[in-house]
Structures are given as C-alpha cells and as structure tokens.
Input
Amino acid sequence: MSRGPRRRSTRGSALTARGGFGGLLLILLLAAAAVLAFLYAGPGPRAPQGVATTVVLERGRGTPGIARVLARAGVIRSQTVFMVMAKLTAGGSSLKAGEYAIASRESMASILGDLKAGRVVRHFVTIPEGWTSEMAANAVNASPVLVGFAAAPPEGSILPETYEVQRGDDRGKVIERMEQARDKLVDQLWAARKPGVPFASPAEAVTLASIVEKETGVAAERPRVAAVFENRLRTGMRLESDPTVIYGISKGLPLGRGLTVSELAAETPYNTYKIAGLPPTPIANPGRAALAAVLNPPPTQDLYFVADGTGGHVFAPTYAEHEKNVAKWRQIERARAAGGAK
Output
C-alpha cells in the first residue's frame, strides 16, 4: 500500500525561532545592562571649563528636579538613568541640597554618593578678634558667594568667629547670626559672672572686654589685664588705655605710628586719659576669651602694666614698681633703636 507525502514537522522550527528570539533578547538585555553600567559607573562628561562644574541644588527639589539640574549643568548624561539608580540605591529621598563641585569626568555613582553624603562646597567668613564692626561688615560684603548688602552693626555687637555660609545667603542675615552668637554668649557669661565685677550691665562688660582685646594679643594675659582695669574702675582711677584714644581718632583703624602728646591731651569721649570710667561704646568686637576674662577676673592687686619687650606685659600693684618696669621698657626701646641705627 502506497503512502502519501510525509508532512514536515514544524515543532523544530518553532523551537529554533524561540531560541533565536531568546538569544537576541538576552543580548539586548546584556547590552542595555552594559550601557546602564557605563552611564552609572563609567566616566562622566568632561567639565565645560576648568576641572570642576559648580552645581547648586535648592532645597525642596525632588529626584526628578535634581536630575534636570545636573543634566542642564552637563555633569550627567541621562536623567532617566540617574533617577533609576537613585531609587535602586535607596538614595532618592536622601539627596542633600547645597552647592557641589562636580569634578570633570566624575561618574554618576560618585555624584550620587556625594549628594547622599552631603559633601557640599563649604564657604566661610572669618572675623578676627578685635576687629571693628565696620571691618566685619566689609569682610561680609566682600564675600563673593553672598548676596545683598550688610550695614555695619553697632560696635561690639558681633562675636568674632569663623562662620560657615552658603552660596546665596543674605549678607544682612549673616551679620544677624554674628549678633545672635554674641548675645547668646554674653547672656551665658553674665549669668555666671563673678560676684563684685564693677559693671551695671552686660553692655559695660562688653565695652571693657573690647579694651582688653585691644590691649594685649597674648591670650594668657587677658584675665590679668581685665583685673587691672577692674581694679582701676573700683578705685576711681582712669583707665588710661591707648587703644581707646586711637579709636577716638580713627575709629579703630591702625594709625601706623605712636600717639602724639596733643592726641593724649585731647578732650574726646574715648580718651580714657581724660575721662573717668568707660568710654561710651566698645572700641572693637571682643572675642570669647576677653569677654570671659572681664566677667571672671583673677584676684590681684595690680593697677599697672607696661610692655616687657617680648610681646607681653609686666604688671605691678604700685606706681613705684610700675616706674621701675617702665624704666626697663625704655631701656629696651633705646637698645633697639641703637641696634637699628647701626
């Protein structure tokens, strides 16, 4: 009996087709994974200028907003990949606002790590102890990362410190922070002041602290200098402080020379060779150590001090001892003058 033509099986062809499609899909998935890995962990774009690109991320931006800012700045190649990887690495909700310096060719993985850790660019404004308020305002106004204008606050109203600021901070607000820091410290020190200090108010303590600040640059001497001036206030002696006279002449700017006899004899509100008690305002912004010194001075009978030739001072309780110390200082001055003339 003859048979008809055998029907060709389609099963093998279907399996072959499925295998081919599966292989192609696998290749595509591997290729996509490779692209994703490159975009995430590989080198990022080159900085348009210099070695880094500055990017400012404002508060309140979600991950999509951050991705847009980074893409517009040219520091990532794909917003989509950034958002996906931020979610996959559980960092999308913990990206920190602030100013970042993104290095040229920095990887997306590194950028995400910086944003999670909050490795922001840090800016500082430093106000040295003994600066006047005008000097402090000038320093704040000179900062290129701040905005607005800061007027000079009242003398003695700010705390000399190094303050961290962020790009876009208002200069007036930065001065307010300095004033608040001083008020907080003065309140604390005043509450714990030594009984018997000769001040009717914290403002008077700040004024004397400013004089102490300008009289010595040796930190260890500040308490003793403070004690001398407080002993003088108690006994009714004039303070006779050169820095107060200078403030009355130049508002605290260095004269670049010694005081003249006529300047020491001039009748001004800041000439403590002529007036009794404290001048009407501070003559600078005293630091923590000077403020603490006037509110907790050491017990001493000293009423005088004069330079000792080493950058510090020598102290005396009587005028007779003080005269001897002054004579030694004059001898040092003459020796220096003679040495300089050779």
The first helix runs from residue 11 to 41. The radius of gyration is 35 Å.
